[in-house]
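Convert to structure. Protein one:
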Amino acid sequence: MRVDWNERIGGIKMIEIRDFLRVHGRHVSKSLVSQRLSVGEETAMIIVGKLLSEDFVAVEDEDRGERRYKITDKGCRLASTRAVKRIDRHEAVPILHRFHARIEAVNARRDLIFFIREVRLFGSFIDPLATDYGDLDVAIDFQDKSRFNGDLKGHCEARADLHGRFLYGWHAVKYCKEEVRKLVAARDRYISVSCMVTLERIKAPSEPFYIAPDKVDDLTTSEHASAT
């Protein structure tokens, strides 16, 4: 997403508005804007109106007499956009090559409970008219390995416990999925990771980047035991 970080809405820089949306990931209101951005009610209404007109938020409902706005998919993309120097295609391609190598390295590991089944590129990188990029948008489909299907939560709880994280149920499952995401993202400031569900919801054009070979999920329990 191309963002002019010097643009101001009601005197507030876009980067501050981005940070506000990051913290309040689902709903916002005029009073919340006023409180968190330290502006008056009139300025807060200007900011909300601009976010509404640009489709960063949409009217949802009222709570205790105040209108609430849900953050849209476009608003979520703004929240995840990094304020980094834009790069051209010559610089972007090696970043994607390294990202691809990390995916293959992660999928080769026997100890991880999830693997990456598919990755798709979307956003400005696949736009033939774009000449530079603020980030490289990728959508990832995570899949648990079939040998864990019988007791996925139990295996995830054990792995979280191994790392000193005492989590249970779906919290442990989320932890193990996030472990894989962090490994492939590797804190690369240009790689912006979304889940495949988000890509399907926003119906953005996309192109295949990686599809896991069948052998990734072929490891038997005995192979896993010998590898660890």
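Protein two, convert as well:
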Amino acid sequence: MHITIITDSGPHIGQGHWQRMLLFAWYCCHNGLPVTLVHKHGVSAPLDFPVTVCNSIPQHTNCIIRDMRDSTKEEIENLRAIVPVIVIDDGGKGRLLAKAAIDLLPNIYGNTDNTFTSTVPLFLYGYNFYQSLTQAPHTIAKDIDCFIYASTFDATPLLNVLGTHYSFVCSDGNTLSTNTHLSSDTSYSNLIARSKVVIAHFGITIYEAMLCGCNCIILNPTTYHDKLSNTLQNTEVLLYHQLYNPAHIPQIMTTLKNFVEQARMHVDTAQCISTIQTNLKNFYDALRLIITT
């Protein structure tokens, strides 16, 4: 059995699909299941990554996993002419043509006949996030008021208001800005774990923030993202979402004040790692069940 994972990343789709498939490919490799990654735009894997990243589907593939949002009928027809296809978080017209469809994010379009239903959590977190957590202390104090991941919006108006009232770290995906002291570990997972509140658009960052016990303010670029945010349910943290508009900053600041005051003071990274590993095994077992059925 050999699996090929087709995925993508970039400004048009974010990093979540690529990061979670990197983690799953790594897990497959460490469990003896041969796997190949195909990135639609030819992005390379992290240094020393144990799985090959190719530009095309290898001939020895037995199953394709497609994780790139909405598919077309033509695309899935072409893929399934090679081998069976499993699609992930696919709301496109090609979904029905796949052998199975797995929803890791909330499905706002409704199930199809080929939807795989699970009684256990299958959500996959990011490879970089997981690997950094495994190097972190077992307990991390939350000493940063706010981490802002502003890959889809201009955070400047928000940062101007934050000023010196709250400690913050802001990333646009490439560079960091901050008004507080940072330790030598400025990894993505460490910054999230240290933060009381995370501000970002709906996506994998919000799920990783919730895992680390962060209250979340979700500022969305589209109504699609906001509808997904509206389906989130988590009794362990506080959540607020809106379509981002700089005119709403006073309301955002009021929410931030309340969320900081009610925040946890530390995170148990060992528990976070355990959850990630459990979900990985659940997804791996689900995939093998689908393939062999």
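The chain has two domains: 3-117, 131-269. The chain has a mean pLDDT of 94.
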